[in-house]
């Protein structure tokens, strides 16, 4: 088992397989001018599979593929197949914007993908196009439908809440009523400062602390005759490796979760390392400290790769100490 220097068991690796995307969400990527890394600068699929094999030998059991948009990376289905076939790996999940799921969900499931999280920040079609700069909400709905029809379980919907966007939160919570959808509200985080120019930028005022969000939705739901939100205990939560707190409405098929990286940080439960698309290992989302796994992969033995992995593990900070702002965009880190 892999432990960091704060006695936390670290067995979850989040891998960004590309920094590219078929959308440009306001808070994640500038519309133009992203300095895309050339393909040669990205880890190859073989290199990613090698990292997973070595990490599994160190006690890592769970992998999430993210990005950028993981489904635009050519060969992603084969990568899923290779990862799940790695001895020691128990589960491989994906975070996606869902747009390519209608054509890919079945082959991903056949390859061994365990679960999908689909990102959707608004249910208003015009606002969706505004936030993603050109996306069509019907494409995400089609992605959600295909994930459910293919039999992925649980299917989680991730919504980043930004105060100035005035999203209809109750409408989101209602998604959990009639279908087994697990809606998670995510606190807006200060990642990717360079988005600020012509993107949304991050301000503290735009982050709605989870406690405020929970009481807001609870009040709206109660007024609408749905509420209150009922807290779920550990055995009732949908399968997952993250720190979400879950609730449900009586009789609902799905759940409503809250993820608060800032207002109520969960660093003491942190169980992960992140690997960027270029092969840098990040001990903490909120720190730009990185370890060069790429160099070791190119020139080194498995032992050299293992050494970098151990170094990154042992330098995980105890908590993020409310350090805000990172140089890299979320799409480069792998959100
Ligand atoms: N393209 C995929 C998607 O959108 O799901 C995977 C990559 S995306 C970077 C992963 C998640 O990070 C998405 O749910 C996105 O909403 C979230 N995200 C991006 N920037 C964020 C920010 N500043 N604060 C909180 N979540 C953010
Ligand atoms: Fe693309 Fe996901 Fe970032 Fe939106 S949040 S721009 S879909 S990587």
Secondary-structure arrangement, i.e. CATH architecture: Alpha-Beta Barrel
| CATH fold naming | TIM Barrel
Major sheet: 12 strands, mixed
* Whole-angstrom Rg: 19 Å
Strand ordering within the main sheet: 7-8-9-6-5-4-3-2-1-10-11-12
Which superfamily, in CATH terms, is the homologous superfamily?
Aldolase class I
H-E string: EHEHEHEHHEHEHEEEEEEHHH
CATH class reads Alpha Beta
Percentage of residues in strands: 15-25%
| Ions and ligands | S-adenosylmethionine, iron/sulfur cluster
| Shape annotation | globular
SSE-based structural type:
alpha/beta
Number of helical elements? 10
Helix content: 25-40%
- N/C terminus separation: 24 Å
How many strands? 12
Mean pLDDT: 90
Q: Could you give the topology of this structure?
A:
Blueprint: E1 12-16, H1 45-57, E2 62-66, H2 76-84, E3 91-96, H3 101-111, E4 115-119, H4 125-132, H5 137-150, E5 155-161, H6 169-178, E6 181-187, H7 210-223, E7 230-231, E8 245-248, E9 255-259, E10 272-275, E11 280-282, E12 291-292, H8 293-299, H9 302-314, H10 330-333
Parallel strand pairs: 1-2, 1-10, 2-3, 3-4, 4-5, 5-6, 6-9
Antiparallel strand pairs: 7-8, 8-9, 10-11, 11-12
Helix pairs in contact: 1-2, 2-3, 3-5
The structure holds S-adenosylmethionine and iron/sulfur cluster.
Structure notes:
- The protein is globular, with a radius of gyration of 19 Å.
- α2 (76-84) runs parallel beside α3 and α3 runs parallel beside α5 (137-150).
- The mean pLDDT is 90.
- The protein starts with 11 loop residues before the first strand and ends with a helix.
- With 335 residues, it is of the alpha/beta class.
- The chain is built from 10 helices and 12 strands.
- It binds S-adenosylmethionine and iron/sulfur cluster.
- S-adenosylmethionine (SAM) is lined by residues 21, 27-28, 66-67, 69, 95-97, 119, 158, 160, 186, 188-189, 191, 330-331, 335.
